[in-house]
Amino acid sequence: MISKKKALLISIVLVVLTALTTSTVTLALGDKVMIARDTYEQYKKYNKLIALESLIKEDYYKKPKDEKLVEGAMKGLFAGTEDRYSTYYTKSEMDRLIEENKGSYVGVGMYIGSTEEGELTVIPMDGSPAKKSGIKEGDILVKVSGKLVSAKNSDEAVSLIKGKEGTTVDLVVKRDGKERKINIERKEIVEHTIESKVVGDNLGYIKIKQFIDTTYDDFEKDLKKLKEKNIKGLVIDVRSNPGGNLAIVSEVADSLIGEGTIVYTKDNKGNTEYLKSDKRKLDLPIVVLTNGESASASEILTAAIIDNKAGISVGTKTFGKGLVQSVKTLKDGSGYKLTTAQYFTPNGEYINEKGIKPTIEEKDEKKQLDVAIKWIQEEISK
């Protein structure tokens, strides 16, 4: 007869063998834990990463911060997709992205870029506190509130510039080799992505700089004003427009092309989603101005207008971005942007890395508007 102690041991061995062969059992043995094989294999692939973390902590010349190492690992995970549009955002980076998409924030109203040398350059927005205080395009941002800034800590520079409305921030900028200290009052900045005017023989012109949360409402307001002036045609300028929100560009297209397909997407499972427009139509000749920096949402609008025979395009071939990104915010405020689908034009063209060829090619940007006006006038006279 088998003793109780031996029977228990046999039972434990059978359970362990089952765990190693089926992937369904987890068992605690003292201070050790037996886990399912597939779970073990999932964690095993990160052994090297954990080992490298230990080496850094052991040999790095100063004590690294755990959160920075983890943050770098998460950024590297997204970099591993080899997709330039997919990335992990820290909380501060995510906050900045959300603000940019909303089109409003409290600050001084200037765009910040970087040079090859790692310096920060600024471009003030028209009518902004930065512009009124004397900031000029091309100024080098040296300090913010006494803190030296560069491309390495650009996020910190941006966060220091922002603050409560009515408070001030001290900036040091360099121009022509000389440093200037400028004190600027923070105000709510509302970014307008739409500019409009009447051109040619009573034709409307609308420039769309980007597709953010405020774009559609501004577009509708300006289009209404132009229609009240009895325009006979419309030029939509998306040259150098990098794209933006898919839902916003769909709304813009929906107000122009009439009943039809705006765009459709396919995910990695083959699921297809169609974005449709209703019967509303501008019912005027439309020309879209494009160039090599017209990307993503700009290309969606261009293709929707052309494929639904609502108008044509003039200029040069577009950038060629046929990928859709989903943006998610995580519980701790961080987040990510991940390419989750491909998009296709209404006629079924996949334009990624190919772009959209213009209906009428005109390489000289100074002549493109004139070519558009001429085409619309010919359409009107038919």
UniProtKB/TrEMBL annotation:
Pfam families: CtpB_N-like, PDZ_6, Peptidase_S41
Gene3D superfamilies per UniProt: 2-enoyl-CoA Hydratase, Chain A, domain 1 (3.90.226.10), 2.30.42.10, 3.30.750.44
InterPro entries: ClpP/crotonase-like_dom_sf (IPR029045), CtpA/B_N (IPR055210), PDZ (IPR001478), PDZ_6 (IPR041489), PDZ_sf (IPR036034), Peptidase_S41A (IPR004447), Tail-specific_protease (IPR005151)
Top enzyme class: hydrolase
Domain of life, per lineage: Bacteria
One Gene Ontology term from the biological process aspect of the record: proteolysis
Family membership: Belongs to the peptidase S41A family.
Domain PDZ: residue ranges: 94-176
Listed EC numbers: 3.4.21.102
Gene Ontology MF, one: serine-type endopeptidase activity
Keywords attached to this entry: Hydrolase, Protease, Serine protease
Name by which UniProt lists this protein: Carboxyl-terminal processing protease
